[in-house]
Specification:
By secondary structure, this protein is mainly beta. It is built from 1 helix and 5 strands. A 5-stranded antiparallel β-sheet has the order 4-3-2-1-5.
């Protein structure tokens, strides 16, 4: 991995309770600056949700981002987020 994290960037991938600060914490910091209700596209490497286009950002806490896609609330681990875009960003 380019950032030097062993086993990946998700929390506790190595089983030692650690978190890769070089990529996950900065992404959480960026997400924390987005106002709730902002329409965004969230790029992910998550096979379940894939890229989430034109979703409403709700919140981020404890390395989990919450977005709304219509009436569906989707939780995405911050370690799976690859990028964020939107008109007001």
């Amino acid at each position: 991995m380019a950032c030097g994290c062993r086993g990946g960037c998700c929390p506790d991938v190595g089983g030692d309770g650690s978190l890769c600060d070089c990529c996950v914490t900065p992404m959480q910091n960026i997400l924390e600056q987005i106002p709730a209700g902002t329409r965004i596209t969230l790029g992910t490497v998550d096979n379940t949700s894939g890229n989430l286009q034109n979703v409403d950002f709700e919140s981020v806490s404890d390395y989990i981002a919450i977005v709304l896609e219509g009436a569906n609330r989707i939780a995405v681990p911050v370690c799976k987020v690859t990028g964020i875009s939107g008109e007001r960003l």
